[in-house]
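Q: I'm teaching a short session on how sequence maps to structure, and I want students to see two examples side by side rather than one. Could you give me a first protein with its sequence written out and its structure tokens following it? Keep the formatting plain so it prints cleanly on a handout.
A: Of course. Example one:
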Amino acid sequence: MVGLEREHSWLARFPQILRAERLKAAFTREELADQIGVPIEEVGPWEEGVALPPLPEFFSLAEVFGWPIPRAIVEKKLVGSEGSTPASLKKRPPPRAGRPSPDAARRLGLPPTR
């Protein structure tokens, strides 16, 4: 039971964790959406606790923020019964390309955008 309680408390805190990580990385919601390749409208509900990100987007968030992902989750969720990757995860669109905001460019040491 302890594992379930710990998992529930983490899920209950996910909106606060996501927002804190985004702010620590100095990303706007739009910049985070660009980083993981989703429309900006998806990030707000995750931070507000209205919805949780689908698993592919969760993995993208984990990559951006350096969150560890337990091997058991990867094996159970990403590998089908025949040992293949589910079709929904085989081909993901690349992240949207765009210019970073002037603040993001400055923080990243990039030349200013015009």
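Q: Perfect. Now a second example for contrast.
A: Example two:
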Amino acid sequence: MAESPEPLNPQDKMSAELAFNRSIDVHYGVAEEVAPDEAVVPYNLACYWSLAGKKDQALTYLSRAIAMDPEFRERIHEEPDFDPIRSDPEFRALTEIIV
């Protein structure tokens, strides 16, 4: 049976998180260049940032996705990736369906 790796110390954990976040930014930056008119790119990035606990980044990209394709607003209520920020007043205002 393989041994579990030792937990990262706080400094190494922070460095790993920064490196991962930078790689996400780079990959989505490329996706935005390749498909600038596809709302799914900022939508998926909003999902990632929500799960990462970065509310402001999540809301920025979610707002962009909705502006590009208002139908994304209908998906949000069933998207579990937004559960970490779902109760936030800014999220609720952004995602409210206007009848």
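Q: What should students look for in example two?
A: Point them to this: Residues 10-34 form the longest helix (25 residues). Also worth mentioning: The mean pLDDT is 82.
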